[in-house]
Amino acid sequence: MNVDLSVVIPVYNEEQGLAALFARLYPALDALGIPYEVLFVNDGSRDRSAALLREQFQKRPEVTRVILFNGNFGQHMAIMAGFEQVRGRRIVTLDADLQNPPEEIGRLVVKMDEGYDYVGSIRRMRRDTAFRRYASSAMNILRERITRIRMTDQGCMLRAYSREIVDAINECREVSTYIPALAYTFAQRPVEIEVDHEERAAGVSKYSLYQLIRLNFDLVTAFSLVPLQLFSLAGMIISLLSILFVGYLAVRRLLIGPEAEGVFTLFGIVFFLLGIALFGIGLLGEYVGRVSQQVRQRPRYLIQAVLEQREAEAALLRPAPATPERDGSAPG
Ligand code: UDP
Ligand code: MG
Q: In sequence order, what are the residues at sequence separation of 6 or more whose Cβ sits closer than 8 angstroms to the Cβ of residue 166?
């Protein structure tokens, strides 16, 4: 069977919201009238999410597949794992928390039919805390300046990608990445549409302030060397100026003799330079940390089990009574 649409949904501790998600997602997809599949990736949830996904798989085995991770590898790794398994011609990503209504998927598909290979989305009336909104608009501005990625609303995960883009993403071995931005770099004809945004239906946000900061560092360092280059440039200019300054002090020492005054000015300058040096070391660390992660080439995630109908089997006996399970941990 040719799958027209694959929907990839990362799930991490979403037991409270999953029932509502199933209740809205499946009717919305059925209504499209195209062959589809839903691929849930359980990112090592510690609640009943895995059990609920298994139940849902048993209810709709012909259109549902579930990847169970061995631990928590993060939202973007979960989506990556989904991408490596999808069979669809077009792929849509969606959060499990119903902040983006599944009913909007149809509009993304229509856009793809018009010939676009990347459909981004902009949240109409974003329903998040004021802090999240301000912080992310600041990050948007920074990203626009230092990368070539043009997105109005980088945080919205409801997006559609063509098979070609997803294949290209599957070629990437990177560990810390940001899928919408990575996909954008491969897009030939991107477009954006406005979508609705709702408050989280149930459960809590999985991102703490710290994790949001980490995610934004990923976004910047994965797509731009500008911070590093700016710093090394600034470092060079400043060290040049300091050499001039030391020369000037030496000349003064020779012409005027020793001066005790002005010691604090000197302290000020030293601390300023120290501050810049420390910041630079930290910035270097951000890149070096990623380089070392990358050279280690560890598996990016571990799959415990995949729940799916084997393709041949699905074709033979549809609707299938048995729901075989493919077990074993295959490193990704
Ligand atoms: N998520 C995940 N692994 C994580 C964190 C989040 O798979 O480590 C999933 C989560 O279940 C949800 C989506 O990623 O489907 C977005 O998370 P959340 O809604 O908490 O983020 P926010 O909307 O607050 O940015
Ligand atoms: Mg959310």
A: 83, 86, 91, 183
Cβ of 99 closer than 6 Å to ligand 1, yes or no, is yes
Cα dihedral 139, 167, 93, 325 sign = negative
Q: Are 8 and 92 contacting, i.e. CB atoms less than 8 angstroms apart?
A: yes
Q: Find residue 160's DSSP bridge partners.
A: 92, 119
273-316 confidence digits (pLDDT tens): 888 888 888 888 888 888 877 777 777 888 888 999 877 666 66
CA-proximal residue: ligand 1, atom 13 (nearest): 95
Q: Are 62 and 309 in contact (CB under 8 A)?
A: yes
Indicate the helix (H) or strand (E) that contains 137.
Answer: helix 130-146
What is the phi/psi pair of residue 66, to 5°?
A: -130, 130
pTM: 0.81
| Contact predicate 219/178, CB 8 Å | yes
